[in-house]
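Reminder to self: tokens first, then the designed residues, so the page reads top to bottom the way the pipeline ran.
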């Protein structure tokens, strides 16, 4: 497990930036690493709005950086404080990784199994998510979803239905209306 120096903006909207820094630390820990976010720790006892205390916090942060294995810079904006941290990491030979928001979002991808019934004279064509008690099944990896689809495709209990793995939409789920091909957002 590496010790990761988490760099992200703090100034400006301090509350929102603090919440994002917490998310970055959680994401870093989910990657199997140990995050260190001095900009979450030092404002607990130093006043960010007092220039001398802010400078002291920055100096202490750079000292902590010396003990870290890597620096990860989060987000699309590099603040002046982050820029100084990145420069120091490079000077010390500490690897710097830039983690963009899209990389963070990629870890939130869920996969489901999409069932498609071919048109038959009796029932007609239909499609939708495989569900359990009315809730679409959700898998953390494409491989797990594929295993599930393979099992039910192999059972042939419903020969005119085929099951496919699809990435699920995160915020709104689209469902096929029972009487038309119109998609309804819920």
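Designed residues (186 positions):
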């Amino acid at each position: 497990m590496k010790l990761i120096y988490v760099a992200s903006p703090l100034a400006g909207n301090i509350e929102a930036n603090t919440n994002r820094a917490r998310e970055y630390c959680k994401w870093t820990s989910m990657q199997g690493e140990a995050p260190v976010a001095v900009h979450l720790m030092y404002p607990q006892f130093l006043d960010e709005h007092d220039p001398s205390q802010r400078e002291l916090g920055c100096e202490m942060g750079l000292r902590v950086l010396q003990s870290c294995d890597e620096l990860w810079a989060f987000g699309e904006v590099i603040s002046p404080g982050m820029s100084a941290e990145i420069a120091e990491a490079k000077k010390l030979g500490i690897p710097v990784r830039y983690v963009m928001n899209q990389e963070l979002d990629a870890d939130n991808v869920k996969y489901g199994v999409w069932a498609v019934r071919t048109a038959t004279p009796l029932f007609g064509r239909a499609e939708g998510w495989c569900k359990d008690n009315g809730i679409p099944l959700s898998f953390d990896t494409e491989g797990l979803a594929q295993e599930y689809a393979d099992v039910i495709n192999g059972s042939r209990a419903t020969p005119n239905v085929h099951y496919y793995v699809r990435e699920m939409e995160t915020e709104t789920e689209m469902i096929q209306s029972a009487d038309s091909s119109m998609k309804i957002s819920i």
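Confidence is low (pLDDT under 50) at residues 170-186.
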